[in-house]
Amino acid sequence: MLDADFFRRWMTATAASVDREAQRLTALDSPIGDADHGSNLQRGFTSVVNVLEKDAPDTPGAVLTLAGRQLISTVGGASGPLYGTLLRRTGKALGDAAEVSEEQFGDALRAGVDAVMALG
Ligand SMILES: [Mg+2]
Asked: What's the CA-to-centroid distance between 33 and ligand 1, angstroms?
């Protein structure tokens, strides 16, 4: 079973990946965008890690909902709403259970992806 701590560690690991790849993400954004994708995501995920440390939500759904809300309010352009919607909808679909199974997480992620597709 997956608990709130699992999802906090997922967000922390994602923030570390974004830090590692920020320059590459920005380079990829340069020919087609305004060369800020790496720095935008870096700001967003740093903020997610900070708010999760401060507020310490105690269910998987609350962790992802808070993370998604934070991305929407801190990441500019299209990526904030896209990543934020993915996490918020996934979190909402997980409900308020203290622990979820991998299958429940898979189903919730599907709901999140569907929401991103509808938005896109
Ligand atoms: Mg941009």
From this structure: 6
